[in-house]
């Protein structure tokens, strides 16, 4: 998705990097551990253009429905998020999601319909809304330009680390900032959107183009990661654009300015996607699968996702086992148009690169070198289908004892 | 698939239960453990009608291609199977699979084209064909009416137990026997056929009807189990019918006789499917998911398979964790036509049954009773979609530390 001449600078402050945004995170009591914040707020001083993509799971969390209604006019000014409870499969879920919006809107003196709401945590437990109502004043009072870390921490569940990324880029002579936070860990197999990701930017961009950019970039980033094949009920990617960068309004999808913005958004969402895959539940390794040489883009996507989703490939990577036959097996059962006798597979890491399969059969590889390659924390799987020009990249993680451990006793 | 008046008797001797069949199993050296047989033979004294279904993986083991050619005339008299090596992704694979057929055909004084060949084990390692050639005389000499156990043992890989099942039923006044062996364990997510299953019967049935029966029954049995979501390269279900039961030839798919045969085949394949799910790699529990009330059969199938394939549901069952929200999540991301607000979910075992979800929301259930239900080795998940009459059943197993352990070091 990136052109060779695309330049950007990595900057600090995550979701507060763009002009006009403040954030906060507090402990309201939804999580038992008092040292972990569980309620986050992102606020823009000015009204923003807003765009979002949501889970395609037919079971949707109540906050998804409320947010969809609030973003019907493609504008928003605040985002409130809780962890510890997904507010999903509850008869009073939408009512409580609406109370979350109204409560924080009252604090901020804005309209409830300009608030985006998201929840993550266990499904099917009633949301103790009074905890959120009681914490709303503190959440508002702690808003600051440095609140991004607290907000990033407050949206986590079984994640082991915060996930933030921000960049600045130049669009027609003006500096534009784009920054985001996300959470992932388990139930990660996004379809259209993933878990939770909140992005802010000071770019001036028309809301319809913002929506198009979010959809296209999500397809290449969050929709190309998998931790466990389970598509969550509460996935959401939301972008707020404040226009404070003072760039000429981006209003043409064929313009160089729009292409720059899309590439900037790609960098941020791709980095946040990788962080989610790397911090998948129990994961010890990040897997990046690059598929090239496909006749169709869809084939490249199917093959890349099939490989990083395979339990057998994931287990082999955990065991640092060069069992490349499982990669061939996962290619074979993926959808799409390819001829297995044209397939080449390479495995690589910072320790080097080895071709393990040529023309669909075993290549003459150095087993010792291969084993050494697999000891690293980031493993690259290169698949050349040898039939065309289309390509795709997907990210995943290994399957470990800890994944099972985490998910065998999440509830209790 | 079973009518209420269908009667059958469970009998011993697995693949040797039907008249005319003998079997054997020997250790030829493909597996390191000398106490484990790794080469099996099933032989019919008379020429049989033969039918098979195969994996839909685009990467197919060499034996699949050879068997497809040999069964083009819908006749066969012997089946040779090795474990320890899948003979897949090898440039000389088909040549060696053909040598396996020729070698045993010479011993049996039959044509190589009347031999079915199958292999299971690691992908992409050259098959040491000389071990099989050397063992062929012993394999033939040990053929006996009691050889079914040895044959059942010789086809196993990481399976922890042999999988055999046989029944007798009456068709138009004659006793017909149907018996089979199978192996499973890992890389189990069949699509059209599964891993390896070999069935013998003495029924007299036209080969086209035999093929139809195998396809239809496989769709309801092996194609409804999943251990790890990975569809193997070597899946195959083969049925040989010797005609020695002396029943009037079954030649009409609308006849009561054909329906009886299909139901008998269903019982055998369903029991073998359950055994594979129960003995999934590392599994401690069998999961049976019965979906009812669907508008379309396809919806019932999608929902049942989605639930028993979910890593999060499987981990929760291992942890005996009544986290029913994960079942709702897996229903939600499955394909098919349903309304989540009509859904009811019950969990059951020999300890009782509890409704955990009513109308898509949490039901008022007894947590202590539910926890007790989940301590059993066979867990039943009942899903009523509340919208129609179609139904489907799927089988799976829990996801345990041992699955990861087994697959992290299978190769080395």
Automatic annotation (TrEMBL), chains A, B:
Domain of life: Bacteria
Residues annotated as signal peptide: none
Compartments, record wording: Cytoplasm
Enzyme class: transferase
Primary location recorded for the protein, binned into one broad class: cytoplasm
Molecular function, one GO term: L-glutamate N-acetyltransferase activity
Keywords, comma-separated and alphabetical: Acyltransferase, Amino-acid biosynthesis, Arginine biosynthesis, Autocatalytic cleavage, Cytoplasm, Multifunctional enzyme, Transferase
EC numbers on record: 2.3.1.35, 2.3.1.1
A GO biological-process term: ornithine biosynthetic process
Residues carrying the site annotation Cleavage: 193-194
Pathway recorded for this protein: Amino-acid biosynthesis; L-arginine biosynthesis; N(2)-acetyl-L-ornithine from L-glutamate: step 1/4; Amino-acid biosynthesis; L-arginine biosynthesis; L-ornithine and N-acetyl-L-glutamate from L-glutamate and N(2)-acetyl-L-ornithine (cyclic): step 1/1
GO cellular component: cytoplasm
Catalytic activities: N(2)-acetyl-L-ornithine + L-glutamate = N-acetyl-L-glutamate + L-ornithine; L-glutamate + acetyl-CoA = N-acetyl-L-glutamate + CoA + H(+)
Positions bound to substrate: 157, 183, 194, 281, 407, 412
Protein's UniProt keywords contain Acyltransferase: yes
Xref: Gene3D superfamilies: ArgJ beta chain, C-terminal domain (3.10.20.340), L-amino peptidase D-ALA esterase/amidase (3.60.70.12)
HAMAP family xrefs: ArgJ
Record function comment: Catalyzes two activities which are involved in the cyclic version of arginine biosynthesis: the synthesis of N-acetylglutamate from glutamate and acetyl-CoA as the acetyl donor, and of ornithine by transacetylation between N(2)-acetylornithine and glutamate.
Recorded family membership: Belongs to the ArgJ family.
Annotated protein name in UniProt: Arginine biosynthesis bifunctional protein ArgJ
Organism: Enterococcus alcedinis
Gene of this entry: argJ
């Amino acid at each position: 998705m990136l052109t060779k001449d695309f330049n950007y600078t990595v900057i600090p402050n995550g979701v507060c990097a763009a002009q006009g945004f403040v954030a906060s995170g507090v402990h309201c009591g939804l999580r038992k551990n008092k040292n972990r914040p569980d309620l986050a707020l992102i606020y823009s001083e000015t009204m923003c253009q807003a765009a979002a993509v949501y889970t395609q799971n037919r079971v949707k969390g109540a906050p998804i429905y409320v947010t969809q209604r609030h973003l019907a006019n493609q504008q928003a000014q605040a985002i409130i998020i809780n962890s510890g409870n997904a507010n999903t499969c509850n008869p009073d879920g939408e009512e409580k999601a609406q109370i979350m919006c109204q409560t924080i809107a009252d604090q901020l003196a804005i309209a409830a319909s300009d608030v985006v709401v998201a929840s993550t945590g266990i499904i099917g437990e009633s949301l103790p809304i009074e905890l959120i109502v009681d914490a709303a004043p503190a959440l508002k009072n702690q808003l600051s330009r440095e609140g991004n870390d607290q907000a990033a921490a407050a949206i986590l569940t079984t994640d082991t680390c915060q996930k933030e990324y921000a960049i600045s880029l130049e669009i027609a002579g003006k500096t534009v900032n784009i920054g985001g936070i996300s959470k992932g860990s388990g139930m990660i197999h996004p379809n259209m959107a993933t878990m939770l990701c909140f992005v802010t930017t000071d770019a001036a961009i028309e809301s319809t183009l913002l929506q198009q950019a979010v959809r296209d970039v999500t397809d290449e980033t969050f929709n190309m990661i998998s931790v466990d094949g389970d598509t969550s009920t509460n996935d959401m990617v939301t972008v707020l654009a404040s226009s404070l960068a003072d760039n000429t309004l981006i209003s043409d999808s064929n313009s160089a300015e729009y292409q720059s913005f899309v590439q900037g958004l790609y960098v941020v969402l791709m980095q946040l996607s990788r962080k989610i895959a790397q911090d998948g539940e129990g994961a010890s390794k990040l897997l990046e699968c690059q598929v090239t040489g496909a006749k169709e883009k869809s084939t490249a996507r199917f093959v890349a996702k099939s490989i990083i989703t395979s339990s057998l490939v994931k287990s082999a990577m955990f065991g640092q086992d060069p069992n490349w036959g499982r990669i061939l097996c996962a290619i074979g059962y993926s959808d799409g148009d390819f001829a297995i006798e044209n397939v080449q597979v390479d495995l690589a890491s910072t320790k080097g690169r080895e071709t393990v399969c040529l023309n669909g059969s075993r290549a003459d590889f150095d087993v010792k070198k291969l084993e050494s390659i697999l000891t690293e924390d980031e493993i690259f799987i290169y698949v050349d289908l040898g039939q065309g020009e289309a390509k795709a990249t997907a990210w995943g993680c290994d399957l470990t004892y800890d994944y099972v451990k985490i998910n065998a006793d999440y509830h209790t």
